[in-house]
Amino acid sequence: MKRARGMAGLTAFAALVVGVQLMTRAAGTEYYLTQLTMTAYYTVVVLGLCLVMGYAGQISLGHGAFFAIGGYTSAVLTTHDVTAWATASPVGRVLDRAGVFVERTTLYGGDVLSVNPWLAFVCAVLLSLFVALVIGYPTLRLKGHYLAMGTLGFGLIVYRILVGSRLTGGADGIAAVPPWHLLPGLVLTGRLGWRVANYYIAWGFAGLVLVFILNVVQSRTGRALRSIHDGEMAANAMGIDTAGYKLKVFVISAVLAAMAGSMLTHYSAGIGPSEADVMKSVRYVTLVAAGGMANVWGALIVGTVLTFLSLRGTFGSLDHAVFGFILILIMTLAPQGPLRPVAAGVRAVLGTLCARLASRRHAGRVPAAEETPAA
Amino acid sequence: MSQALQYIFSGITVGSIYAIVALGFNLIYSTTGIVNFAQGEFVMLGGMTAVTLSRFLPLPLAIMGAVALVALAGGSLEVVFFRRLRRPTILQMIIITIGLSIVIREAALHLWDEQVRALPYFTGEATSSVTVLGAGISPQVFWVLGTVAVAVLLLHLFLRGTLMGKAMRACASNLEASLLAGINAANTRTLSFMLSAGLGALGGCIMSPITMTQYDMGTSLAIKGFAAAMLGGIGNHMAAVLAGLLVGLAESFSVFVLPAAYKDATAFAILLLVLFVRPHGLFRAREVGASVREF
User: Fold this and answer.
1) C-alpha dihedral, A364 to A370 to A374 to A375, nearest 10°
2) What is the pTM of this model?
């Protein structure tokens, strides 16, 4: 039944993605697709963080930094001119032969060699993996929420380095990041002609991540994490390596953030240090909390809607304040998320209807383990 | 020699602010278990309020008014947002304080603006200096050090000598036992928020002439103060003061090895290092109860 519901959800998700694209075409508002594409990448970060917060019960205030690590790794590697090195040094020539470098045209029309975006992407993943291990290993072994402060400090360091270093372009960031030729005939770029294709690339990626996360939640790891949530000591006593599972989930979500960062950087052809800003990280936390913590679908829905509205500038100068307010309101009034009471209501109505129609069919569902009774 | 002295003085001056923030963390943490991410905002609010009040009040009154107002604000935060929570999780409480810090910061941005403000120097002017062993020190530095020393001493006496202070320590050490002893834990929590906010506001006032006050100064102060609190061992008040000074000194001497742009990163690096190597801090707290170890 769980699987059937998952399939139904995914089908609805795909239909909605296609439907929105067709609607923007029909309404002549295709410029929405640009923000919707960006929203998809930010939503990937939110989905990853949902694992950390909802299932491992930890807060990371450094996901903006992981996003920036991914983006900047791609940006630096793919814009750095290595022509001289690749043609002069023997190592460079071997690497060039191996297809590590690609030729691209700079803003001024010259042809230079830079690292292949695919390889840069792999580097971004590896770097974020390494950093997440270094941050997560010690902090997650401690009891409580040291991860929150550890990642906050880490995020601030990354921000300072990005602003202070010449390699990353200081406060200006890096511009003119080349398009990424994913496959023959499929380019990740923000150019106008590729807008619809990139909308589908972004949401296709988000869909894959969604499937992956749903699988993690229902796997051995997910069960172990839920047991940690219900009682860490009991879980430990059962032989579950709680710290190991928390670390695994934290690393997964950091890598997902870096992947999204790398892809969005190619899409918007640049990146700035504001991606690593603490407010960005807090924003991801808000979206997961507003989605109902251990609720992947909630995080997806709330994350998409609020990110899109924010990118459209709906909240004006109150942008940050709106997110702060949402955070406080949700946590004080409805810590289970605003969607859950609504969903429960809908389910109850449907349930009574179904019960009337066919008395044999079970309505509603057995309360799952992650649903702690509302306080 | 005189240059080293200059660095030492600037180190302990900023360090004493970190000490104050660290103390604030400890006060709230030990009675409530909340790591208050809005701690730096109290400092900012203190400075901002004092600057505004000083327009129509003499400076000492303006500072006292600011401390009182921010203390009230801190207490009401506890009453409004935390008192009514039943069986809150740590995750929930941390997230609320994160939200509060954002809302306070944004409110300050709209109430005042993004301009940098400062209180006037308490004695003399920006250029006046006292010569100590060949190093020119601003008189404000002595105001800061003196005020912090007196505040820390008073806090110590309060926690040790008064019934209210003892109640706070009792709540920190064992909540259930103190409830059984008839201590009103909810009021104790409110008091700890008020003390912590007032202390932060005082720090914001005395530092304002030197480091200026701006609406977004809170986050980095909070994390530096937390670094100090961790270094001293969370829940250990006197060690937090010492650790705050250490963090300030480390930051001030970091310019010898790091570019000045990365000066801020020193405290964060210390925080990460402490988390990795000695999560219980340099000095093992003697008076730490079960509630503190839970974090």
Assistant:
1) 170
2) 0.83
